[in-house]
Amino acid sequence: MAKIPHEIVIPSELRPADGRFGCGPSRVRKSAVDALASVATTWLGTSHRQAPVKKVVGSVRAGLSELFGLPDGWEIVLGNGGSTVFWDIATFGLIDERSAHFVFGEFSSKFAEASAAAPHLGAPLVVESPTGSHPDITATAGYDTYALTHNETSTGVAMQLRRPAGADAGSIVLVDATSAAGGLAWSPSEADVYYFAPQKCFASDGGLWIAACSPAAVERIEGVHASKRWIPASMSLKIALDNSRLDQTYNTPALATLFLLDQQIQWMNAQGGLAWCASRCAASASVLYGWAEARDWATPFVSDPAKRSDVVGTIDLVSAEDGGVSANDVSAALRANGIVDTDSYRKLGRNQLRVGMFPAVPPSDVEALTACIDFVVNQLRN
């Protein structure tokens, strides 16, 4: 008789120390939550324009500059709304006339759609590739903004960042780094705006966008503002920039999110900075992909190892019809045992598991996860 997934009991000795493997919201370290609890009566419910909160915002900005090794003149700008809102913000305050987008999944396509819908912009160039890969980065005359994605959260594809050779003078490069920032290495010389949200590598909650901006990006922000283009105040990068320089946001932020973000940045820098974080994520990825390649019923979705993400791992399973198992059944069994959020991205429609391997997740927990999957698959097949 076939096993019922939620009735499968995984031996406790196989289970990871922490069962959270989501790709956003992601695992939040217990020590960070404990630190937040310790300031519950002095931090939560206080003014975001007073010294205690402004000090933490300043710490976030300084900590990110250190983590990314930003050169002089770069600025950390932040505001409310997350990366989805930032795409709309960029159509108002960063794209001058026309943008070129390199699309290889659900999230990279959304910015292209926002640009195409903006009535004040020219039609964007959209360069696409099949899911599981990414397009080559090339320059095209007549485009002032290039939109790249460092890591496609939906597919588990990572891109090596580089400026398009031969791009028009004065063009800038925007990088969606939502699931990459803090887990994948990058060079500020290859980008002008590196933007992200804190609910993935930075082990916090959503609701903020953060952008590391080069001097060229700051110049673009100020130039667009001076052009008198109509921009809603809540989406004005110039207003966000001016407020960030005062260590605050234009409107009220979630204080718990800010605090947890700062805790994670401090922890990352104390461990060894971005190099340490990237190495830790790479070790987890090596465990996951190596395990999948050693199974006859599993394989990494991204066929080219050079394009496989070290922070979001996608693993295809052989279907039950072909002698394998349902990935939904595997995820259901894992969840019943406290191992959560291994489901594939909903719109891909594949028999697939997706695993968040952000810095807060130790490689040992990824290894334990693979042992648990082995156990569940064996139970489902026998």
Automatic annotation (TrEMBL):
One GO term (biological process)? glycine biosynthetic process, by transamination of glyoxylate
| Keyword Cytoplasm among record annotations | yes
Sorted UniProt keywords: Amino-acid biosynthesis, Aminotransferase, Cytoplasm, Pyridoxal phosphate, Pyridoxine biosynthesis, Serine biosynthesis, Transferase
Q: Listed GO cellular component terms? A: peroxisome
Tell me the cofactors it needs.
pyridoxal 5'-phosphate
Q: Quick one: which pathway?
A: Amino-acid biosynthesis; L-serine biosynthesis; L-serine from 3-phospho-D-glycerate: step 2/3
List the Gene Ontology MF annotations in alphabetical order.
alanine-glyoxylate transaminase activity; L-serine-pyruvate transaminase activity; O-phospho-L-serine:2-oxoglutarate aminotransferase activity
Q: What class of enzyme is it?
A: transferase
> EC?
2.6.1.52
What the record says about family reads: Belongs to the class-V pyridoxal-phosphate-dependent aminotransferase family. SerC subfamily.
The name on file for this protein is phosphoserine transaminase
Q: Which organism is it from?
A: freshwater metagenome
